[in-house]
Structures are given as C-alpha cells and as structure tokens.
Amino acid sequence: MATPDFIRELRATAGQQLLFLPGVSAVVVDGGGRVLLHRRADTGRWSIIGGIPEPGEQPARTAVREVYEETGVVCTAERVVGVEGLDPIQYPNGDKCQFMDIALRCRATGGEARVNDDEGLEVGWFEPDGLPADLEDFARHRIRLALSDGPTWFAEAAVPGA
Question: What gap in Å lies between CA 93 and CA 91, rounded to an integer?
Fold first, then answer.
C-alpha cells in the first residue's frame, strides 16, 4: 500500500519508531459468491484489498475507497467480520508499524475488475474453493470469516494472572 501523506508527515518527526495504526481489509464478494483478489506489486502475491484510513475516515469508507482505487470495482461494506491486532512489522527502509486490522465483508455493486493503480499487477475473481496457492493465511482467514454467518471474530485476550 502506498504511504499516506499524513504518515509521511508523522515520520518526519517520529523517525522510524513504531507507529500503531489502523488498517482495513476488504473481502469483496460478487453475486456469484466469487472473491475479488489482486496480485500485489510489492510482493508479487495474491491478496485481499486493504489500506490505511485517512484521518477522520470511517473504516467502511476506507474499504470502499481502497477497493475502487486498486481494482476499479465499486462495492458496499456490509459488515465487520474480524478485528485483530497484528504483529509489528519493519519495512525495508527501517520504518516500524503495527496495525489494528478491521476486516470487512463487502458486496460488489458495479465497476469492472482491472488493475487501477500502481499497487497491483493483476486483478481477478476467484471461487472460494479455487483460491491461488500463494494466497497468505492472513487473507484466507478473512475470506473464511466473510463467507461464514458467524459473529465478528476477534483475537482472544490473555487473562492477566492466568
């Protein structure tokens, strides 16, 4: 994902120290039950769509914006399927981040799936039982959540003193 301007501004004073940031993941499903994926330019792997909210932007709006920006698909956010604090990561330039991921199920309502920015190499619709072999567990887990009717999933908290 491209680094938003507000994070560049933070980095100017915060340096490379760990930033705790919100993140949004979108599992987009079409009328036939297929899942929208894009092959990321930075890793070369297939993934669900995701991004960082702009200051003041609601997670559902972030999902809709990111899906359109990256794939040309218009969608509607339907529900939160998972919330998870991810492990800290360090980027090749030394910047450190930790994301609180909010995963949303979205329904495609229009547009045509295509590479729509420089973050993706390919875009495609996949049957749930025909997902690409190199799809990360992160995405597979969120797809399972989005295709189930279960309640919102969240990582269990450790009980202090237990």
Answer: 5
* Tokens encoding 119: 């973050």
Is this prediction's pTM over 0.85?
yes
| Angstrom distance (rounded) from CA 28 to CA 122 | 16
DSSP 95-149: -EEEEEEEEEEEEEEEE-----STTEEEEEEE-GGG--TT--HHHHHHHHHHHS-
Rounded Cα–Cα distance for residues 7 and 19 (Å): 9
Digit-coded pLDDT (tens) for 49-98: 999 999 999 999 999 999 999 999 999 999 999 999 999 999 899 999 99
User: How far is Cα 156 from Cα 138, in angstroms, rounded to an integer?
Assistant: 16
> Which 8-state DSSP code applies to residue 162?
-
CATH topology of domain 22-143: Nucleoside Triphosphate Pyrophosphohydrolase (3.90.79)
Residue indicated by tokens 């749930």: 128
